[in-house]
User: Fold this.
Amino acid sequence: MSPTQKALFLDKKFGNFVLEDTEIYKPGPGEILIKIHATSLNPVDWKIQKLGVLEKYPAILGTDIAGEVEELGEGVSEFKVGDRVFIQGTYDNRGSSFQQYTTAVASSVARIPPNWTYDQVAALPVVLSCAYIGLYNKNPYGLGIDPPISEATEGKYADTPIVVLGGSTSVGQMVIQLAQLSGFSPIFTTASPKHTVFLKSLGATHILDRSLSSSDMRAEIKKICNDKPIHFVYDTVSSEDTQRTALDILDSGGQMVAVNPLKLTPSEDKKAFMVLGILRAPHNVELTETLYHDKISGWLERGLIKPNNVEILPNGLSGIPDGLARMQADQVSGTKLIAHPQET
Assistant:
């Protein structure tokens, strides 16, 4: 193994991406070193560049990691060198993904099942963490639904309706699949009509045209539900308009979760939260360690979670800046952009 690696650095606040050599990290106690074979791009990556929100530069971005175990830190016994793994990374140079090697806490790492490729699992971590935390963490970090991690809780919410605003987004697709695993029915989602067949294949039972007014949407939902109360809405778009729609759809005692900061204040009989989809955030660790270390590989192998459509970018890490520019220009839809750091 070379003593150095290639990494894509954001050189300064509001700066440019620069490809440079840097150290290969030594895994600490309880950590593993991962040779990254695939990483995906997320909107937050270009937003960090444009908004300058990080404290330390030069910074390595990217938090979707799929690769193989290269080295074990002290005390790690459940993995061996060569194991195929994936994890959501961190915004710290030792744990991010726009580089050839990264470190990760072993207790939060998932194994890649034989029927999934590096590219397929690289599209999962950020959206999986966001969807899972928003659904299953306790208030005020999520909706407080019991996670489907046992026979007692898998399918527990049969005959309970849920509404997912923005079903065709990457997070929306994951929320729909997790909601199906939890047994929710009916599962409503909003999208353009062209996405109907695809979203039904993921588990959505009713696709509502996203152009409907909130009053028309609520009326349609109530008609289908026979006036059964709506107590759960996940807003994966989280504009001011969709947050207003979410609150309008909810019945008294209901709650909604949004992926962006809240722009509206709910009435006293409704609750609203913003999800912080960070795997190693203190209030998420117990929940996400169980998900990644113990459950997600089995769900993938059983086909309970389906892979996203992916597009492979050319030139390894060097292709990432152009990919982020396309995302910022809203030129990517229904597809996760994937880079192969080892091909740099």
Notes: The chain has a mean pLDDT of 96.
